[in-house]
Specification:
This protein is mainly α. The chain has 13 helices and two strands; from the N terminus they run ααααααββααααααα. It has a single domain, classed as ABC transporter involved in vitamin B12 uptake, BtuC, CATH 1.10.3470. The longest helix has 31 residues. The relative contact order is 0.19.
Length: 317
């Protein structure tokens, strides 16, 4: 019988519970229902993007452009709805299609040129940053139809709609990793690219698929974020890639590829959401928050590297 939760997932679950206990005791409002739903809305976008990012990291890649993919989809959707009067559904479709194509381009460039994913996606980040500012001229775009706000601000009963969307995306992510051969290929090329090629896996096609899926989920999250803040800003997604990377690595997905799962990613997302919310409630300075986030990311990467080296040594012996 397979273990439902491995030791690493058990460890981060304990960390999450400790954080919940700490912030519940340190603040009076953390465990109130309104705040818990606020956390749910805050983590929804992070959780959706983390699904696609998990695929990328498991396959041995990385995508640093996702932050400004969010900015671009915000600006594009806002421009289409407000300035061109386009139907919100069509505007959303075009926005999500745009980020999916960006992911596709990332994958094609990486596989065709052999360049390191970190270089390609960092360059794409700069390109998208510039495009977002050019399209918006650095100004916020607002004045959406009231019906559009439901995706980021609305509820089904008392449960935020954004949370439902995130859970659906996570379920899709679990299905892809656990029940499809694509998921097995993600792990295979992340563990050993050459061995995967020799086994007959079309590694180039799988890598392109991985980055395309990352763009798709990023686009969905970007639309929900636009609906929640109700304003298209060229800086909306700035730095968001670091939050996603922290959540996914903290959740046990190896920075070196080939290891991890969607359950761990989900727990990592919850930890980041709880940590951010609790620090705000405690009135911790935003720059101190940055220091703490950086330390969390550094700890997660160091822990992953140590575990990987231990695994390699045990195999040799």
């Amino acid at each position: 019988m397979k273990k439902i939760i491995n030791s690493k997932q058990f460890g981060i679950t304990v960390v999450m519970l400790v954080l919940i206990c700490f912030f519940s005791l340190a603040t009076n409002s953390f465990f109130k229902l309104n705040n818990l739903f606020n956390i749910a809305r805050q983590i929804a976008m992070l959780g959706i993007i983390s699904v696609g990012f998990t695929f990328v990291l498991i396959s041995g890649g990385i995508d640093l452009s996702i932050g400004y993919q969010i900015s671009l989809v915000n600006v594009i959707c806002a421009t289409l709805m407000v300035k061109l009067g386009m139907n919100p559904v069509l505007a959303v479709f075009i926005g999500i299609l745009t980020t999916t194509v960006i992911g596709l381009l990332n994958g094609i460039i990486i596989t065709r040129t052999g360049l390191a994913p970190i270089i390609v996606t960092l360059a794409m980040q700069m390109i998208l940053n510039g495009l977002s500012y050019i399209l918006s001229q650095g100004l916020p775009i607002f004045g959406f139809p009231k019906s559009f706000a439901i995706w980021g601000q609305g509820n089904i009963g008392i449960i935020p709609i954004a949370l439902f969307i995130m859970l659906i995306c996570v379920a899709i992510g679990v299905f892809i990793l656990k029940k499809t051969y694509f998921g097995r290929y993600f792990y295979a090329i992340g563990s050993n690219m050459e061995a995967a090629k020799l086994s007959g896996v079309n590694t180039h096609a799988i890598q392109v698929l991985v980055y395309s899926l990352c763009g798709l989920f990023t686009g969905i999250a970007g639309v929900i974020m636009l609906s929640r803040i109700n304003s298209g800003l060229s800086s909306t997604g700035a730095g968001y890639e670091m939050d996603v990377l922290t959540a996914v690595v903290l959740g046990g997905v190896s920075i070196n590829g080939g290891k991890g799962g969607m359950l761990g990613t989900f727990i990592g997302v919850l930890i980041i959401g709880i940590l951010d919310n609790g620090l705000v409630l405690m009135n911790v300075n935003e720059y101190v928050q940055l220091v703490i986030r950086g330390m969390v990311l550094l700890f997660a990467v160091i822990f992953d590297t140590v575990q990987t080296k231990k695994g390699e040594r045990s195999i040799k012996h």
